[in-house]
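Backbone shapes recur. Consider a single case.
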Amino acid sequence: MDTLLLGLNEIGHLNVLMAIVIGALIGVTIGSIPGLEPAGVMAILLPLSFSMDPLAGVSLLLGVYGGAWYGGAIPAILMNTPGTPVAVLTTYDGYPMAKRGEGKRALSIAYTSSFVGGIISVCSLVLLAPTLSQVARMFGSAEFAMLAALGMIFVVLAHRNHVVEAAMMLGFGIFLGTVGLDRSYSVQVFTFDHSWLLGGIPLVPAVIGLFAMSQAFVLLSQRGNDAQKTTLEGSGMFGGFIELVRHKMTVIRSAVLGVVMGLLPGVGEFGSQFFSYTLAQKFSKTPEQFGNGAPEGIIASETSNNAVTASVMVPLLAFGIPTDALMAMLLAVFMVHNYIPGPTLFVERPEFISGLYLSLFLMNIVVFLYLTFATRWIVNLTRIRGRFIGAFILVLGFIGSYSQNYRFSDAMIALGFAIFGYMLRRANIPAVPIILGLVLGPVFLTRFRQAMGVAEGDLSIFVTRPISLTLFLMIVASMGFYIWGLLRKKV
């Protein structure tokens, strides 16, 4: 109870409440505009969050993150164009319902499913993060090295059809993480005597370039990409809860899958979405309706998507290991304010943890109420010209990358990553492994070196400790299943 009161006191500050509301509204706006992604906007806001109080900065980014998944359903249902990549399956049943004149009903189902999934996800964070943080107390250098390696392996294997490309990008990210001054031996690594590289490749300009500015280039290169006009037909924006009660097993199954998938690095929304949709169709009494306007399809897609949004934070808070690029941005906010994720954070900053939980609950409520009453105006965002948005993002990207340290070199690094990210998008090569390699690579190398020092160079330290051995076997098993799947396809 005392911790809860401390959390209420934390979110009771005006700056935190404003950050929650503004972040949520920005997220919904971004999700409602086809072609934009929350990662790019979060990257632009990242330097701003550094100047805010820790909880306010994190709440701003989480508001954008969570709100975008809600808003992505609007163009998916009304225009057959997913506002965010993870809303792709929402188009399968949402758009046919809109064509039948049931647009409001479909949106109501999507909003309510997202809300229930989001609340369940926050509850899972509240329950799992403290428990796993206690497990993390038993971790040494060997365990953290294996955990970082497991995260990187999962990220690569999650890109099923682009595993080789993802592995190459991960390796490139790990290489970038070695650039700078090696403090263990006080030697320069791949700096080529340039002083601006002594601190390594900065994360913020890299993220802004890869996700925000590269997307701006994509929007600027498109022609005739104005969104089509949308209409909002039908009646009833509050009937979604009734629909969820009718299909409660689909809700429960999709929410559980979303929570579990959120814990696995690199899987997240995409994996949970496809699993949930497939199972919903399999267990449905009317599977033939899927793809033709089945409410269960929308429920499965939107519930599982939003059930990931908070559970994906469990590995970050408990172990300090980000599972995707968005969590890597949050880790940057933590580190700037000297809040080190892990077991000690729950002991030293219980008021921050409680405030974080409450801000996530409040964010879901704000987004749900806002969408319920303001959808008729939000749909107008789908008509904004893509090239105008691209130019605006490009300017903000330069400002954001420069403003962190007021160094021109950071802006040039962002531009370099933007060009490279644009090339990756055109070639359909994933960019997320680069950021996770940049973040997790140094963690793995540092912890591996520490473990080797403790064991005096004996590699058996990774298989003689129970937790480290378990993580190592998970790595071997995941790679084994992938290779087995490849062999089955060839047979």
User: Anything to note?
Assistant: The mean pLDDT is 81.
